[in-house]
Amino acid sequence: MRLFIGLVFLTSMLIVPQLALATQVTTIDGLVAMYNVEACADCHEDIHDEWKESWHSKSLTDSRVLRTWRTFILSGIDKSDQAKRPVLKMTCLGCHAPQTKVLSDDVTTEISNLVVQSVDDPDKAKREEAKKRLSGLNINCIVCHTMMGSGDGKPQAKTIYGPRGSEDTPHKEELGYETVKSEVISKPDFCHQCHTGCDGLPADKCWSTKTAYNEYVSHGGDKSCQQCHMVKVDDISSHRFPGIYETDFAKSGIDLKVDAWRTNSVNHLENKIMPAIVVKVDLKNQTPHEVPHG
Amino acid sequence: MTVKDQNGKVVYTRTKEYAIYDLHFENQPDGYKGLNEWDITKMTRFNEGFGPGETDSNTFIIPLPEGTKSVDIEAKFRFLYEKGEEAIWNSVTKKIEF
Lengths: 294, 98
What we know:
The structure holds two protein chains of two kinds. Chain A is built from 14 helices and six strands. Chain A is an alpha+beta fold. Chain B is mostly beta strands. Chain B folds into two domains: 1-16 and 58-98, no CATH class; 17-54, no CATH class. Chain B is elongated, with a radius of gyration of 21 Å. Classes of the chains: A alpha+beta, B mainly beta. The interface between A and B is large, with 61 and 55 residues.
């Protein structure tokens, strides 16, 4: 029993992000520990496994993200007269790892150093080490189901938001957390908290998937983001979030038809009749997004 | 699209690209969050992409060398994630014999 209580306490410590928005966290490892999702995986193993394969789980450490940020840091922030590296919290990190908003400026600067190191350090071992240190920062269960779950930026303490509320769940019994139905978590507005481009700018000033979604709706589209990118199986939404980078998902978006027939080509200048073909290629973009993009 | 003759020799190839460019031209001293050199509010978008729900039809008239007995036509839709990393989303082949 003592072990059980100990485990429950430990689990609570892991799952609870503290929502300590007023408290500054002074180490990366401290923040990673606060947002550790292993406790979630204990019960939601399948969902956790799907998420592990998703781009949300590597929102900081995807190779393209790291290289792009390296460029943004060195050629954007460092060349600015006014901006300093902690501006990352209000720009990139605000969506790629929203939990970092409680980090001190020093730790944010440390993250920026790790980003540059993970790409540019000539020593492969150091690049890998930097990437490993960043790998605990991502968009995970706690980010979406507590921090962002209310949709209004004002999450309640000790609250897990989901598509269904419940008064009698292990969240309550073992962790002391309420499970509250979120009115927004199944709607595009939930995704648009981040997939909206640039903080503080309207969608048409900073192109994003929200801009693409608005276009889709203006052309008569009536599905939510979740209906395509979180397809339900047995009433459980996929947490793999497939996108343009997953061929099996993306290939269904393009219809390709080829018609071809033979003919002759008359070379009237040389008095020759040559073989020839006519090829007609028809493409249709069946996605609600531009290709590429999305 | 690639066309090969009965010996596997490429007799015709054609590529069409769809791309979207977000470029930064103007310099704004006050910039976005102090980013005066890289001001994302000054992004200019050139859309050469394939729009949602759009169709694109292309017809190719391809004269072939004398003596061609057959050709294999292969059309692919490729997604270039980045240089050196691509995925084939769709592929169709046709064979024409003379």
